[in-house]
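Example 509.
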Amino acid sequence: MNLRLLQFLSCCVLCVYGWTDNRIRKFKNDFSFGVSTSAYQVEGAWDVDGKGESIWDRFLHEHPEVIADGRNGDVACDSYHQYQRDVEMLRELGVDHYRFSISWPRILPTGYPNVINEKGIQYYDNLINELLKYGIQPMVTLYHYDLPQALQDLGGWINPLSAEWFEDFARVVFDKYGDRVKYWITINQPSGVCVDGYSGLIAPGVVSKGVGDYICVKNVMLAHARAYRLYEKEYKNKYKGQVGISLGLSWAHGVTNATENEDAAAIYRDFTIGLYMDPIWSEAGGFPRSVRDRVAKKSKEQGYKESRLPTLSPEEIKLIKGSADFLGLNHYTSFLVEPADQQFDSPSVDDDMGVKISHNKNWRSSNSVWLKSAPYGIYRLCLYLNKVYNYPQVFITEHGWSTTTGLNDQSRVTTLRDYLSAILFAIEDGTDLRGYTVWSLMDNVEWIAGTSDRFGLYEVDFDSEEKKRTARLSALVYKRIIEKRIVENEWEPENWQIEITKGKEREEL
Ligand code: NOJ
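Predicted structure in complex with 1-deoxynojirimycin:
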């Protein structure tokens, strides 16, 4: 074989196997492994013990026809009554932390702290105490999509008072649980709350594309910052906890590296990453210039007096800038981007961006149309965040995969391993990554998909009285990863028994 050919071939081998060299990469002992759920999706007991109505209760009761399999969150996994079984599963897995959310209307049925529902307070007290009893750190999300309907009736996140409502709610929660909770997430996925939330497709069922969604983004970012500053001022010294925000960020690059595609990808990233990251993590603070310019220009053409993207005052910019101890990263998939060849509703965020997104046809498919596996995306996203935002501290607060029913979820196992391997490379290449959280502990109500998309490490039998939970193959594999802190692609369990191996009573720790 001639030398040139040999050189060429060895170069190819390096490129292909660069990510699968023989070195064993390990998660450090203080890297935190966990699982995640949210109140509406698992608790059930929607009107039990004084809980108020949320926007999701109202929306799915009024529009049962939008739920793929007709199953709403009225009962869900019944975690309100089954929380001890949930903690038992966490002990079976051996997780370090459990991310769950507090239902605002369960503890403040009117939305305001004028009425505090003691039974609701007691529920989260019990859950937190049960977790700590077994050495599992609670990671608490204050808001995961379930606004009290009473506040929606006042305009919800479009009302400028919403930031103050949220701060008042946060104060109640910090007062009650601050002594025991060290990880706080203010808001789950502002893009889901606002851009999806005002598309009309989900709760609150209001359509205000390209207008209400941007007002909502401003108010949600302010709400987050006010809760952060409140904790910083009144609780941090005493309790030494950390407060972050969870952003839903996908990786995106040009469908080819032609300039027009890479430019389209940059626009997409500015609207889906920058709009939420820049206000907190950029040097200048505020919304990205490219987004401001684009929306202002379009708004003018459309005859609006001012940009549909509200401005942030210098005081607001200052309040939000730096308002996070860590970035909670919810990451599921990646997209390929090119200039749009279609018309969008006008106005809308899609129309403002003017790009078309797709998946590579070779990426493995889950049970959800929007979710395909592209593990390199998490690596590229981490390196992008490091470069643009100067190495923020990151905690992966969600990553997951959907299947149909069935315990042999090999596709979830493969995805879990592929992504965790890519994450090890992202850490090796400088990402300050502190933890990883699987979405989800168990099957639950996937919003308008009902229970047709199964995200659980545990399968839930929704037809059974006790919402029986059974470990899937992926639960055993995740347990093994947590125990060994390495990804072993060949490992298989000898039997499917899952036992409690971690989580000693706190007294024994
Ligand atoms: C992100 C959301 O936070 C969560 O509620 C949802 O179930 C997962 N994505 C999967 O779609």
